[in-house]
């Protein structure tokens, strides 16, 4: 991992970020089968309806989990996410903006439920846990700066 100017504090910020990454990995694995069944056949993919989605908490999470800076913002004006490629998202799943993990459309939710009835609820709980960790990461970072 690259050293940065907050390396003195990185065990705390790094630990929070690593916990976020672990929960994201769980969410990605839990959704994989349902996503593979539904998203490639989607007629109006959500990734084609958004733009650049990284926020400041994503930047902190990526930095302190050792994944570096998010990809640069693409200033092109064409509709859709700049990281959407011909075969779907071009980013490493754990490095995608948090908003991409949080969004579960009704079709995907139904597919998740058909895999396991409790899966949508389990995912919502994981997302709440990630929200709490992201908030704590941001708060601790601001405390260090002040
Ligand atoms: S999450 Fe829903 S809207 Fe987005 S690509 Fe998959 S099926 Fe389509
Ligand atoms: S970053 Fe990837 S998953 Fe998120 S909107 Fe863009 S293409 Fe879709």
SSE blueprint:
Elements: H1 10-38, H2 56-64, E1 84-85, E2 88-89, H3 98-102, H4 106-115, H5 119-145
Antiparallel strand pairs: 1-2
The structure holds iron/sulfur cluster (2 copies).
Residue stretches low in confidence (pLDDT < 50, at least 5 long) are none
Helices, by number, come to 5
Q: Strand share of the residues?
A: under 5%
The first-to-last residue Cα distance is 25 Å
Morphology call:
globular
**Main β-sheet description:** 2 strands, antiparallel
Overall tally of structural domains = 1
Number of E-state strands: 2
Please state the average pLDDT score.
91
Helix/strand structural class: mainly alpha
Which strand order spans the largest sheet, edge to edge or round the barrel? 1-2
Order of helices and strands: HHEEHHH
Question: Would you kindly provide a written description of the structure presented here, covering whatever features stand out?
Answer:
By secondary structure, the protein is mainly α. The protein has one domain. The chain has five helices and two strands. It has helices spanning 10-38, 56-64, 98-102, 106-115, 119-145; strands at 84-85, 88-89. The protein has a two-stranded antiparallel sheet with strand order 1-2. β1 and β2 (88-89) form a beta hairpin. The radius of gyration is 16 Å and the shape is globular. The mean pLDDT is 91. The protein binds iron/sulfur cluster (2 copies). One iron/sulfur cluster binds at residues 38-39, 42, 45-46, 105, 107-108.
């Amino acid at each position: 991992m690259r050293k940065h100017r907050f390396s003195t504090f990185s065990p705390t910020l790094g630990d929070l970020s690593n916990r976020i990454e672990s929960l994201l990995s769980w969410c990605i694995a839990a959704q994989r089968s349902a996503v593979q069944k539904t998203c490639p056949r989607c007629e109006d993919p959500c990734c084609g309806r958004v733009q650049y989605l990284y926020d400041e908490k994503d930047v902190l999470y990526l930095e302190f989990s050792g994944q570096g800076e998010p990809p640069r913002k693409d200033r092109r004006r064409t509709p859709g996410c700049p990281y959407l490629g011909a075969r779907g998202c071009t980013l490493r799943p754990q490095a995608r903006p948090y908003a991409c993990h949080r969004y579960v459309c009704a079709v995907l939710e139904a597919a998740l439920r058909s895999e396991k009835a409790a899966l949508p609820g389990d995912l919502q709980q994981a997302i709440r846990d990630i929200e709490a960790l992201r908030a704590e990461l941001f708060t601790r970072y601001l405390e260090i700066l002040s």
